[in-house]
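Closing statement on the S-adenosylmethionine sub-project.
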Amino acid sequence: MLAIEKSELPVNGTNPIQAMFNAVAPRYDLLNRLLSIGYDRHWRKAAVREFESVENKKYLDVATGTADIALEIAKRHPKPSQIVGMDFSISMLKLGHKKISTNHFGKGIKLIPGAAENIPLKDHTFDGAITAFGVRNFLDAKQGLREMYRILKPNGKIVVLEFSFPKKGLLNRLYRLYFEKILPLLGRIISGHKSAYSYLPASVANFPQGEAFNEILECSGFKSVSFKPLTLGIVTLYTGIKNA
Ligand SMILES: C[S@@+](CC[C@H](N)C(=O)[O-])C[C@H]1O[C@@H](n2cnc3c(N)ncnc32)[C@H](O)[C@@H]1O
């Protein structure tokens, strides 16, 4: 059972998911590092490596949060790549602003407010679109993916990073014990938010993984879709291409 029912969310204005991310923003980065024992950095790097390192490219990071993916793209890609990070949580964006203004690689990054279901950017503009740990939270994941398709140039690439569960067996049981029992407890103590870190495992359990998510990418228009499990399958990296 989700702690916050996404069906309650209005597309515009403040909604429970927005409110939740606004509330956990101050401890978000700390909890990421702690709860993933530093692996979150490795996953983001792996996701950004999916984009070719070529000059003059434009990238959109949807649900950018505190801009870790946007900064990773800036580090990896030569100037003058343009990077836009978008999120509907103003508190996350404020922390992202702080980070990019004090980071040597932050100059080419612009952060904007916006909802994934209605991206406030023009059609056929970006070479790459990425969302890390974002799509599972969208009010309407299919609509968000269609929007990412719309803003991509023909042959543009989508990269999606999302939590998943290891295949059945002992590893699955051990990981679920950590993810569903220990993580919510630590998350609640450190963030001070009573439901955000119970929402996390519940939202992963309710979200399509592997082939099922690839089918959604295909339904949103993408071709050549593929997926790659990382770290024993606790995270999965999906890619797809917009038709020429
Ligand atoms: C788990 S965080 C991930 C942040 C970042 N991508 C990262 O790798 O750390 C999820 C982010 O998605 C944002 N988000 C969730 N639903 C959204 C939506 N429909 N439109 C825009 N942002 C959304 C939240 O505000 C939050 O910052």
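The chain has one domain: 6-241. With this model delivered, the sub-project is considered complete and its resources will be redirected to Aim 3.
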